[in-house]
Design goal:
Helices cover about 65% and strands about 0% of the residues. The chain contains 14 helices and 2 strands; from the N terminus they run H-H-H-H-H-H-H-H-H-H-E-E-H-H-H-H. Strands 1-2 form a two-stranded antiparallel ribbon. A hairpin with a 2-residue loop joins strand 1 (about 245) and strand 2 (about 250). The N and C termini lie close together (about 5 Å).
């Protein structure tokens, strides 16, 4: 997700991509506010409307991979990589610190109360490596280290023979088939060292990045439609396998979420190949505005939003009001994070790569950081 560009950069943006990005973040917020909230905190009343599908964050990783392909050829590779870091990292670090202090300032009995060591573990993004020791301050943040790894791998691959031609096809097939091959080991309580490495590098999510690259290759007609269909279908199958969890009763599937992600991949592919949508100016401005703050919203809505929901329940507010309040709170906090942290930090960190004191228009990313 990226903030809107200025001047000519804005005119080149497809509103379709802003709509995809905004829609994915809304789906994340709906899932967290209407379904996961009650699952994590059973004392919360069941929501009047429930969206139980884990779909938005996965699709944001697909979009990230797609636009890595779009932007990676624009200028020096170091500038590309540092630009992605400058977009992702400052807002993430600020969101962790803000959420930490809010959770400590408004503790709820029986809920997670972060300690200073939890703050450092979250700033260092240690959750995937040792989840039993490093709990999330905000569970939405799980995508950030995967994106940073993805952008780094993309930069390294692009500078090697494996990032072009047949090489990238070998990489993509390997990145889907290898996690599938090791899945029986991962799901059957492997030794801790093995689990630490596999989960730490996010191997079970690699197919989402592959899907984004496959869609880009197909959209620019560098991949035949049959090859595209087979490889994207394999990514969809990998998502279904990923969504199995082991319970005392056996393996439990989340096929609904897998189908939703598969549909989302198809929508992204259509947006990549189709002409831009025709949207009324007022709606266009609203969609672009929300898309421009969507990374901040993604980072800020969950942990603090749950506190808002609980406090409103305690004073007798109905569940619809609680949900709306969580959505509004996340949007306002996301806007503030974008204005006060993301944009200024990115401008400051990109100064070594600017010319004449201002960034080139190519820095505007038409689809976003996530």
């Amino acid at each position: 997700m990226t903030a809107a560009g200025t001047g000519g950069a804005r005119s080149r943006r497809k509103i379709s991509w802003d709509l995809v990005r905004a829609g994915c973040v809304v789906l994340v917020m709906l899932y967290h506010s209407t379904s996961l909230s009650v699952f994590l905190h059973p004392e919360l009343e069941p929501r009047a409307i429930e969206f139980p599908y884990q779909v938005g964050a996965s699709l944001l990783l697909v979009v990230s991979a797609y636009f890595a392909c779009v932007t990676i050829r624009r200028g020096p590779m170091l500038r590309y990589w540092w630009g992605r870091v400058a977009r992702l990292l400052p807002s993430f670090l600020a969101a962790v610190v803000i959420s930490y202090f809010v959770l400590r300032a408004f503790p709820i009995e029986g809920w997670f109360f972060p300690l200073p060591e939890d703050l450092w573990a979250n700033l260092l993004m240690l959750w995937h490596w040792k989840p039993q020791f490093y709990p999330f301050i905000d569970g939405s943040h799980w995508t950030v280290p995967l994106q940073l790894m993805g952008f780094t791998v993309a930069a390294l691959l692009y500078k090697s023979p494996w990032g072009h031609g047949r090489g990238i096809l070998v990489v993509m097939w390997t990145a889907v088939l290898l996690p599938l091959a090791q899945w029986p080991i991962r799901i059957n309580d492997p030794v801790e060292g093995y689990r630490t490495v596999v989960d730490g590098i996010g191997m079970h999510r690699w197919h989402l990045f592959v899907a984004g690259v496959v869609i880009w290759l197909w959209s620019v007609k560098r991949l035949s439609t049959p090859h595209f269909v087979v490889l994207l279908g394999l990514c969809m199958a990998a998502q279904e396998v990923h969504n199995y969890t082991r319970t005392p009763e056996g393996l439990l599937a989340d096929t609904g979420s897998s189908v939703a992600v598969a549909i989302g991949m198809c929508v992204i592919a259509l947006v990549a190949r189709a002409p831009d949508l025709s949207v009324p100016p007022l709606a266009r401005r609203a969609i672009s505005w929300f898309a421009g703050i969507s990374y901040g919203v993604f980072l800020m809505h969950q942990a603090i939003g749950y506190i808002v929901v609980r406090k409103l329940q305690d004073v007798g507010a109905d569940t619809l009001t609680q949900t709306l309040a969580m959505l509004v709170t996340g949007t306002v906090l996301g806007w503030m994070l974008t204005r006060l942290v993301e944009k200024p930090a990115h401008k400051l960190l990109m100064r070594p790569f600017t010319r004449g004191g201002s960034a080139t228009s190519r820095e505007a990313d038409p689809a976003g950081r996530r």
